[in-house]
Amino acid sequence: MPTKVNRQKMLIGGKWVACDRNFEVYNPQDGEIIAYVPSATKEDMIEAIGIADRTFRERFPLPVHERIEILEKTADYMTENSEDFAHIIALEGSKTITEARSEVKRAIQTIKISAEEARRLKGETINFDQNAGSENKVGFYQRFPVGVIGAITPFNDPLNLVAHKIGPAIASGNAIVLKPASATPISALKLAEAFVEAGLPQGYLSVLTGSGKEIGDTLITHPSIKMVTFTGGAEAGERITQRVGTKKVSMELGSNSPVIVLADADLPKAVHSCCSGAFSAAGQNCIGVQRIYVEKSVYPQFLDALIEATALLRTGDKMEQRTDMGPMINEKEAERVAGWVEEAVIAGAKVEIGGIREGAFYYPTVMTNVPVTAKIAKEEIFGPIVIVQPVQDLDEAIERSNDVDYGLQAGIFTNDINKAFKAIGKMDVGGIMINDSSDYRIDEMPFGGTKGSGIGREGVRFSMESMTEQKVVCFNLDS
């Protein structure tokens, strides 16, 4: 039975707006059109930014109790409509319905954490009398919202990554204009609906859909945008940094995440975690496991078990609850992954299992003997591929883990606390998971990386800190 095609509206200044021009949103599983979505123009973006700027300046700031109430009501709306949210995520993206339901739960938690952190956004007193001659001075610093935030989000977590932009922005008193990924815009529009229903005053939120080439440049360069927050690919991130000038910037730009498995590890646990971490969301996950370095003495045992676990994964209809992995976001991306695998094989790599593409589906793939110079070893594959390589010891594993221009997260499996702390100290990453894969995150922790993996940290409180400016206040009292 064909899916009913609906026509979406975008949110400009709190009002739902149709557009003369629209683009199609497809179900990547079968290429079926599921929606027509407005294709915003540069003029639409300028209008949205102008409304946000006027709203912020005229109403600045929303009282904290109003921010809390709005965020709590948004979370309530999401909870009441959680199955609708999950269906949208699964239909327009790559996630299975089970993965989509998990994302909805996380997004609700992200909004709830934003409500909690709104009451905790505080400054502190300053002891000015630490300097001689300042005995009569007292004061403090206080955090103020930066103004209007421009946000750009990717397709792979189309609801929760949007929540990680909007939630902290509203919690810290800012207005925000967001452009979601064109492949998965409906989830973002549904979240905007939740904020509207929760009573967010008009002007504080706009969600514009359309071409990044047409409206993205206006969003990041407009003088009224005081901060740009971006989650996406490294090349796009570099282009943005070249265009934003002196605006505040927060960026999460992906990774090539390593996991180390030492001889003293719990191997069944390591296999399970690495298999899940490599292939969830069809591998389209910035902290997904891409490289596994296994101590030689247990390498054959680990590799055999990982291949066996991978063989048990069910790839197919993402709306079926028994399915473990659905399609990639489109056939073009699946073709790209196939090309990277083929390139590595020509250079001497071996496909242990998988290596098969059917349309937008690319089956879970385990590779060995991959040359360190291969693109698939150096860059972010963003697909269901994992590389397994033997190493002599922990030192070699750390050296090889660090030998890429990314440093988002990593994992290590060991029962030796000294080796764990050695990895903590020497691995050049933003987060390291002990006895877990790199693919672990909660929405409250600081999240970000080193090197080419980005600038700054997300996680609700840490996003709010970057979305505010510290202002020092000092009173010179009469003696």
Structure, explained:
The structure is a single chain. The chain has 479 residues and is an alpha/beta fold. The protein folds into two domains: 267 residues, Aldehyde Dehydrogenase, Chain A, domain 1 (3-Layer(aba) Sandwich), CATH 3.40.605.10; 186 residues, Aldehyde Dehydrogenase, Chain A, domain 2 (3-Layer(aba) Sandwich), CATH 3.40.309.10. 38% of the residues lie in helices and 23% in strands. It contains 15 helices and 25 strands. The strands form seven sheets. Strands 15-18-19-14-13-21-22 form a seven-stranded mixed sheet, with helices on both faces. A six-stranded mixed sheet has the order 10-9-8-11-12-24, sandwiched between helices. A three-stranded mixed sheet has the order 1-5-4, with no helix packed on it. The protein starts with 5 loop residues before the first strand and ends with a strand. The model has no long low-confidence stretch (mean pLDDT 96).
